[in-house]
């Protein structure tokens, strides 16, 4: 036996505070080879081994696995290289934990059943590509076999959910609701029906003029209608009827009488069919997911215009 001070596993345990079982495990795994052995075969460790044990403990507390600790001790990989790899692993763990938290929050809000919990977890765990593909498949089905306004639908499908690398719980919850919405049979039937209506209008030559009028004037019409709502105006008031007359005149084709009650009721029906709250919710959720400015509701304003046209 050498003259350098050595310690048994029990003494090493008392000096470091680590359990004997843990030290023996590290030694058996080759992370802490004994300095020497007694004649009876008991392992002994010197001060250098104690320092090595402290390093092993530090690396393990930082979350490194046994293989990475061994690589660091053997210098086949630097501690810096291992730290980079470990940070990447921790980032992925954090991302997954946040996903789980978002799912659990949504479950708590909805008091979800078990099947819905499984679905929500799958939706939250999707990759960016899977999210985009889900939206592409939705719009593919909405326009399949229809002659529609290609530019309009190109704009619709170009807006994709883009969760950031570190999404907020609200963004994750918005994505879960968005994914559920575009998979909901009733919502899909609604949007498909709107697409079929547009295709029929194009075939009948009834699409171009109203569509152009809406694109050019919709924002201004909504603002004026909301102003009327905020002022407590009735749709049959002069303010409401002036707006209705302007909307009808802008949307009417040359062969239509913009002042007739039947035409205005028909136009009101078009507004109603395209003004479903679920369509608006689609864009509100997309804005929340992508960090865009919030999309305020236009439902009261649209309702005012519809009532004004019918009034």
TrEMBL record:
<dbReference type="InterPro" id="IPR009061">
    <property type="entry name" value="DNA-bd_dom_put_sf"/>
</dbReference>
<dbReference type="Pfam" id="PF13411">
    <property type="entry name" value="MerR_1"/>
</dbReference>
<dbReference type="GO" id="GO:0003700">
    <property type="term" value="F:DNA-binding transcription factor activity"/>
</dbReference>
<dbReference type="GO" id="GO:0003677">
    <property type="term" value="F:DNA binding"/>
</dbReference>
<dbReference type="InterPro" id="IPR047057">
    <property type="entry name" value="MerR_fam"/>
</dbReference>
<dbReference type="InterPro" id="IPR000551">
    <property type="entry name" value="MerR-type_HTH_dom"/>
</dbReference>
<protein>
    <submittedName>
        <fullName>MerR family transcriptional regulator</fullName>
    </submittedName>
</protein>
<keyword id="KW-0238">DNA-binding</keyword>
<feature type="domain" description="HTH merR-type">
    <location>
        <begin position="6"/>
        <end position="75"/>
    </location>
</feature>
């Amino acid at each position: 036996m050498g003259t350098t001070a050595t310690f048994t596993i029990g003494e090493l345990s008392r000096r470091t505070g680590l359990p004997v079982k843990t030290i023996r495990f590290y030694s058996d795994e080759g992370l802490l080879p004994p300095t020497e052995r007694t004649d009876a075969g008991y392992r002994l460790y010197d001060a250098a081994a104690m320092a090595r044990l402290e390093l092993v403990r530090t690396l393990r507390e930082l979350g490194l696995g046994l293989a990475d600790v061994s690589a660091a001790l053997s210098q086949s990989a630097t501690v810096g290289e291992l730290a980079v790899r470990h940070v990447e692993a921790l980032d992925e763990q954090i991302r997954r934990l946040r996903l789980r938290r978002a799912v659990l929050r949504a479950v708590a809000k909805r008091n979800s059943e078990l099947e819905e919990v499984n679905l929500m977890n799958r939706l939250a765990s999707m990759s960016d590509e899977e999210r985009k593909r889900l939206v592409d498949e939705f719009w593919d089905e909405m326009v399949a076999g229809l002659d529609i306004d290609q530019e309009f639908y190109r704009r619709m499908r170009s807006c994709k959910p883009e969760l950031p690398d570190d999404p907020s719980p609200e963004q994750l919850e918005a994505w879960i609701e968005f994914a559920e919405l575009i998979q909901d049979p009733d919502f899909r039937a609604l949007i498909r029906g709107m697409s079929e209506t547009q295709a029929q209008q194009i075939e009948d030559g009834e699409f171009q003029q109203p569509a152009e009028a809406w694109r050019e004037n919709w924002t201004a019409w909504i603002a004026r209608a909301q102003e009327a709502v905020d002022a407590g105006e009735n749709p049959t008031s002069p303010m409401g009827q002036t707006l209705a007359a302007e909307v009808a005149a802008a949307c009417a084709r040359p062969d239509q009488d913009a002042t007739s009650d039947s035409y205005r009721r028909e136009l009101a029906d078009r507004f109603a069919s395209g003004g479903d709250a679920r369509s608006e919710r689609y864009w509100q959720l997309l804005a929340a997911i992508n960090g865009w400015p919030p999309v305020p509701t236009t439902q009261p304003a649209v309702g005012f215009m519809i009532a004004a046209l019918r009034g």
